[in-house]
Amino acid sequence: MADKILVTTTENIPGHDYEIIGEVFGLTTQSKNVIKNIGAGLKNIVGGEIKAYSELLTEARDTAISRLRSNAVEMGADAVVMMRFDSDSISQDMETVAAYGTAVKFIH
User: Fold this and answer.
1) Which of 24, 40, 55, 108 is the most buried (most CB within 10 A)?
2) pTM to 2 decimals?
């Protein structure tokens, strides 16, 4: 059911009127394993994209959105508008990603 929740970065959803339910969040903290961390350190010496970090952030983003959708379902929402991301490093090898937005219910 959560994968059916529409998530948009816009304020309005064309063709839909809705009422605001409230804020919704999806949070995750991810870390790399030791092997990937060593590989990332070596790549840092020669430069270029560090794919282990890109994969880490992609996984964290996807998890945060999934949790945001689950939070919206728990609130009885039909969609989430104005979705945004925030991220922060907790330590050298841990990232926290938050997806947040406004849960809405369609008026039929």
Assistant:
1) 24
2) 0.82
